[in-house]
Amino acid sequence: MNKRGLLFAMISLALFGCASNKKPVDSKGLQVSENGRFLTEDGKPFFWLGDTGWLLFNKTTREQADQYLEDRKQKGFNVVQVMVLHSVPSVNIYGDSSLVNGDISKPKITEGSSFADSTQYDFWDHIDYVVDKAKEKGIYMAMVPVWGTNVKNKKVSLEQAKIYAEFLAKRYKDKSNIIWLNGGDIKGSEGAKVWEMIGSTLQANDPNHLVTFHPRGRTGSSEWFHDAKWLDFNMAQSGHRRYDQDTSAKEKWHYGEDNWKYIEKDYNLKVVKPTIDAEPSYEGIPQGLHDVKQPRWKDADVRRYGYWSVFAGAFGYTYGDNSVMQFYNPASKEAAAYGATKSWQEALNDPGAGQMLYLKNLMLSRNAYLDRVPDQSLIVGAVGGDGEKYNRLMATKGEDYIFVYTYTGRNIPLKMGVLPGDQVKASWFSPGDGKTTPIGDVENKGTHQFDPPGEEKNGNDWVLIVDKI
């Protein structure tokens, strides 16, 4: 190769070698940022603050859906993860069935759309109503076409999957607030051809909506589909188990409660794509999920998962609540899943739900959001000095600021001189109430030991903020 050819090859590699498979669309709507790390909405930074409203389409009336969406809007959520078909077929609260004879390739559609006339208002009209209502409130609907167990149980053939995905794509391609979550709590290796068919069909027929894959607990979509052209961003489900409950910990890519490791793994892949923990432990759910006698995950736990994953490089975070995700109604005859005891309406106000907005606001509070990077080298003594399990410190920085999260309120040994200036401004941010307490100006050289307020214990979490003066 001559020198000119070599130079061209080097330039091409620099420009395209680490590029993501972003869709070639304009700056309007929701899309992957130019650097492949984040999402943007109409060209501006978009922090995904999701809620798992899995059974919203099935278990709520129109009025109840309004109530739920308005509450989530007020709490700062801008994405709701929801199942289209939880089962094959699915039936909603009005008794409307989704399919003809349980055939996923034959959606049960009626002419017209009149709620006053039950013969016209069908299962799909109800979904349309909720999607449109969410749009009014600035909320994206991240929709799972068909939950994974149905594919695992051979209820969806390859041909049926193609026809069904085409139906969904054509019905919702003009709805601006749609995100597609292929899969649904399943390994990508189980029914891989079906997932590939759904993903590629959605992309071909609905190219302006982002597509990802919602995986099985303690796995991530990148294990199977990172290089798939239809996968716009990666999604992990860190799951609901404690460190000592993760019996699959010896398997590759299983990390117990260390959800930041899923993000770190995806962040370092050669093809750059955004990544997120879209199902960590839910507030109010038993630790380990299935034994209702176990302790329940609390607000401090969901905060920890949020700050750990976002500071590790995630573009957002999804919160979940045990009662809300299943829209549990104690007055109904249906048994509660995972030991839920309170109604979903009461659980809307569980403390963790209200605290998620503080994370979103913090991340959007600084300039150059799209240039933020994780950086554990800021912690003096890393690797190793940044701590294990609950003592883990997570650091991230932008051009003019540094954030460091501690779940236990442990001492933070910070490397100074990273930001410009002889001095920097330091403060403490409380993830529990969103309040900021000034520390003052600090000399910007050497190592500075920052001691958070309160005693060192689990749940005494703080974010150290260091800003350029």
From TrEMBL:
UniProt feature coiled coil, ranges: none
The Apiosidase-like catalytic domain, residue ranges: 33-367
Superkingdom of this protein's organism: Bacteria
Database matches in PROSITE patterns: PROKAR_LIPOPROTEIN
InterPro entries: Apiosidase-like_cat_dom, Collagen-bd_put, GH
Basic and acidic residues bias spans: 442-457
Pfam families, per the entry: Apiosidase (PF13204), Collagen_bind_2 (PF12904)
Stated name of the protein: DUF4038 domain-containing protein
Lineage per the UniProt record: Bacteria, Pseudomonadati, Bacteroidota, Sphingobacteriia, Sphingobacteriales
